[in-house]
User: Which sequence fits this backbone?
């Protein structure tokens, strides 16, 4: 086939990139075009995403890509994190900046929600893991606060839907991100509107749910002219970044495997041909999220690199020479392993002002040795994340009644070799780490599938296997880690 270039806008909660994927029909090469910072902005006590700034960065990246590659660019697609959303008015204008999922407005909302609609009913209709920042509870917080947006909103769009609208002018709710709301019914394949009505929430602003691979059309005329991308189509990838990352898992077709998409969050689970909505999944608080090509991601959210990121941020506020990520790794390696553990998903670690202090306090309350320096804090966090991986792996095996032989870790977190090795040690399984740019690769290959340049996700995974290196980690000191696992369970 003719050489083609696809653009992936991969926007994360802490940073974003615009990546070019060059595909010759055999191998995929990925090139970073533009990178930008992201993060919530506190305005009068509410955490907002700065959508105008993000859009400006995306346009800048498109202009750079257009100047560099021109007519060879055939399409573009956006992936972001889940649960967050914005509203358009009936005239198509943005009504307000989206609120960040870490905002405190959803504190205590779940308990109030269950007084109207039972927890069991919500799970049976949505199959989703219960987390206070799910879109459902954000809407209920708006209802409780009598937000006028619910009355005037014309269109509900998740974060990537907003960007696809700005790119193409077309309004759509892409399935993989819609499935993170906790008001999408994966069995019916549509919105759980009856449940929303039970809460007294409006539903008229919801769009039809569109699958990954949907071609929305070309760039808006004025955008195409200013960027030079006059022939680029806008294509929906798996717009939830984990859906795109899972597409990139270089798994063998006949293997039993679990995945971890490792970044600020660690999304760990299995790929299933169908939703699994039963008492075991409900009891273990797993989630059914839409995948690409009709698959379902049965997974659990785990706090990932956020713990290390926040420790680094706090320490760097008081240093003239900022700690690099190599410094963070060196400090972690300098500390003794398996001394103290935290529960990475405890609410103490959701939005602390001082993450190192929060880690130390948790250890003190649970009667464990208190980390005495930076390295010990980092080691405690890293070991705890790895132990949480084992805990969730055991849950995956319980759900599927299958022994899982390989754990695939994909995404930027694979650069932390110490954590990848710790995952192998804790899980006592072979760990395959890579590709690093899993989300961008999955985004791009979904565009290629939509344009007929790859047949399906099976072929896309074969292409990714040929295109990117992976690193294998085998368990070390399994008995020591097994003994420590019991201490982790007691402490968390």
Assistant:
């Amino acid at each position: 086939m003719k050489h083609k270039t696809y653009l992936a806008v991969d926007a994360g909660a802490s940073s974003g990139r615009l990546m070019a994927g060059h595909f010759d029909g055999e191998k995929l090469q990925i090139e970073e075009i533009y990178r930008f910072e992201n993060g919530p902005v506190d305005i009068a006590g509410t955490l907002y995403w700065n959508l105008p700034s993000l859009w400006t960065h995306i346009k800048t990246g498109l202009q750079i890509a257009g100047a560099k590659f021109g007519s060879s660019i055939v399409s573009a697609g956006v992936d972001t994190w889940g649960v967050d959303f914005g509203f358009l008015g009936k005239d198509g204008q943005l009504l307000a900046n989206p609120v960040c999922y870490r905002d405190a407005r959803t504190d205590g909302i779940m308990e109030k929600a269950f007084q109207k609609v039972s927890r069991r009913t919500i799970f049976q209709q949505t199959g989703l893991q219960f987390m206070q920042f799910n879109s459902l509870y954000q809407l209920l917080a708006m209802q409780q606060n009598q937000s006028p947006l619910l009355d005037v909103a014309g269109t509900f769009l998740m974060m990537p839907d907003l960007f696809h609208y700005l790119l193409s002018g077309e309004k759509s709710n892409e399935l993989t991100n819609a499935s993170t709301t906790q008001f999408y019914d994966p069995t019916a394949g549509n919105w759980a509107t009856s449940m929303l009505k039970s809460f007294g929430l409006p539903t008229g602003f919801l769009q039809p749910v569109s699958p990954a691979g949907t071609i929305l059309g070309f760039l808006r005329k004025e955008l195409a002219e200013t960027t030079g991308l006059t022939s680029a189509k806008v294509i929906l990838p798996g717009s939830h970044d984990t859906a795109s990352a899972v597409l990139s898992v270089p798994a063998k077709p006949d293997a039993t495997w679990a995945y971890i998409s490792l970044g600020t969050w660690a999304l760990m689970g299995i790929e299933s041909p169908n939703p699994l909505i039963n008492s075991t999944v409900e009891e273990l608080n797993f989630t059914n999220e839409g995948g690409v090509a009709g698959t379902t991601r049965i997974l659990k959210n785990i706090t990932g690199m956020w713990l290390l990121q926040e420790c680094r941020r706090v320490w760097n506020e008081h240093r003239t020479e900022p700690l690099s990520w190599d410094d963070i790794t060196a400090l972690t390696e300098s500390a003794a392993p398996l001394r103290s553990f935290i529960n990475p998903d405890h609410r103490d670690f959701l939005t602390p002002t001082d993450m190192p202090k929060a880690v130390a306090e948790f250890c003190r309350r649970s009667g464990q040795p208190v980390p005495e320096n930076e390295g010990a804090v980092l080691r405690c966090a890293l070991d705890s994340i790895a132990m949480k991986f084992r805990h969730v792996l055991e849950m995956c095996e319980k759900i599927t009644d299958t022994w899982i032989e390989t754990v695939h870790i994909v995404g930027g977190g694979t650069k932390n070799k110490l954590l990848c090795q710790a995952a192998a040690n804790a899980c006592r399984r072979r760990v395959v780490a890579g590709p690093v740019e899993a989300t961008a690769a999955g985004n791009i290959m979904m565009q290629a599938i939509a344009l007929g340049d790859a047949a399906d996700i099976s072929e896309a995974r074969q292409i990714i296997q040929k295109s990117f290196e992976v690193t294998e980690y085998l368990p070390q000191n399994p008995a020591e880690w097994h003994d420590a696992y019991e201490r982790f369970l007691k402490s968390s």
